[in-house]
Amino acid sequence: MDAATALVARPAAEVSAEFEVLVDHHLLHVQGPENVRMHDIVRGFARARAFEEDSRDELRQVLSRLVRHYLRWADQADHLLYPHRHRRGLSDALGSTRTPPDHDRKRWNGWLWAGPADASTWFQREWRNCLMLADHAIEHEMKENGALLVHALSQFLETQGRREDAGRAQETAVRAARETLSPATLAQALFELSFTRFRIGHHAAALEHATEALSIFRSSGDRRAEAKTLDRIGIVLWTTARYREALAHHQEAQDLHRKAGDPHGEADSLGYAAIALWHLGRYGDALQHLNFSLDMCRRSGDRRREAMVLNNLGNVQRQRGFHRDAVRYYEESSAIFKQIGGVQNEAILKNNIGGVHHYKVDYPSALRCYREAITVFREIGDRRNTADALNSIGAVYLLMGRPSEALVHHQQAEGAARDVGDPYQQLQALRGMADAHQACGRYPLALDHYHKALDISVPYQQAKAHEGIAATVLHLQGEQAARIHWRQAL
């Protein structure tokens, strides 16, 4: 109804009355309190009449009104759902404030909805229409507004795991921004496309897009966007096991956020740096960074980021062997994500809780959690976390005395990790394959896989690889030959 009112630029009461007539004659189908759908015959007739009777300029004005209508609504939904997100200002595109005409809607502090839940419902109902409209606008000489509509949708699509839809739309937005020679729009589109590429495991493309965006943000003097992009590059780097490079990027981002007086951005950088520190074995520093980040997230009211930090605190504590603390953090994180939504994050938590069951020797519960998580990862195209879950399943099967099944899962994980360029998961898979071969008495094969793992490992993982080599050499050559590897593990 609201879209139709914007389309014809007439009072809502008049449009509503005409809709009722069309519904009574079964020419419109009511699909819900906010949604109607044209009969196919009516749609075809209306389309034909529009092209026959309306001029190109009139059609362009209609499209402009509709795009601006959806841009206003999407922008408000985005602000309500993701208040801490770094975003483009839309005042120039909208030509006024973000608040659209009332259309007899309830307002909440000047907004169109009663709160974030209503904004989420609107996005769930309209995101496909928004993407089709953005694509149509870009193809019909409204490239800037079409790209901005994609921008307004990007965080929602990411949260919902709609990676393929987001990627297609963001590629179109990048192309449109290049054609309009709009550096700010191009940088933002590249920034968002880089994260979508990262999420589906295309790390080289993610780095390329983020690096180009960084150059544009630096040229324009947008220091906050520069810091956000440095953090994005750091995320890709630690995912590909380049932990020291990642740490340097997050530290640089933290300095920029501090100089800009942006404590929320600084909290983000600290949280990301903590992950690099954790993988470097600096657990104390990682915990310090995460606790500081958690405090700042709570002060700013960023519930989504708070939940992510809690999850990472759980990961570090689990790695340190403090499983009770890990469970507490995971439960706190899970409670938040159940309130605010986030398909991927809930699956990651399920995978992590599986790890706690794993430690407690509750293997059936661990397998159930891992399988529930991997189903979601596969649905949303998250190959990196798919590899993680496969490795975890393999490790459980090995402990259950089923090395053949363990080997199959680690082999699948190794292939997935290699495809996405994730050395950490590839290393876990190689070690798991070696452990499975060793359990089956295939010691030469086990030794070969341990050496492959050693070649790509960082210090902690090198120690684990040497531990496996020592156990294998013990069977092949005896205690004296194994001692040197035990010493290296220590």
Please summarize what this structure is.
This protein has 490 residues and is mainly α.
Description:
The protein has helices spanning 2-8, 12-24, 40-53, 56-81, 91-94, 116-139, 143-159, 163-180, 183-199, 203-220, 223-239, 243-259, 263-279, 283-300, 303-320, 323-340, 343-359, 363-379, 383-399, 403-420, 423-439, 443-455, 459-477, 479-489; strands spanning 28-32, 35-38. With 490 residues, the chain is mainly α. Among the domains are: 1-53, no CATH class; 58-92 and 115-199, no CATH class. The protein has a two-stranded antiparallel ribbon. A hairpin with a 2-residue loop joins β1 and β2. The protein is elongated, with a radius of gyration of 26 Å.
Tags for this model:
490 residues, 2% strand, single chain, two-stranded antiparallel sheet, mainly alpha, 24 helices
Question: Which helices and strands, and how do they pair?
Answer:
Elements: H1 2-8, H2 12-24, E1 28-32, E2 35-38, H3 40-53, H4 56-81, H5 91-94, H6 116-139, H7 143-159, H8 163-180, H9 183-199, H10 203-220, H11 223-239, H12 243-259, H13 263-279, H14 283-300, H15 303-320, H16 323-340, H17 343-359, H18 363-379, H19 383-399, H20 403-420, H21 423-439, H22 443-455, H23 459-477, H24 479-489
Antiparallel strand pairs: 1-2
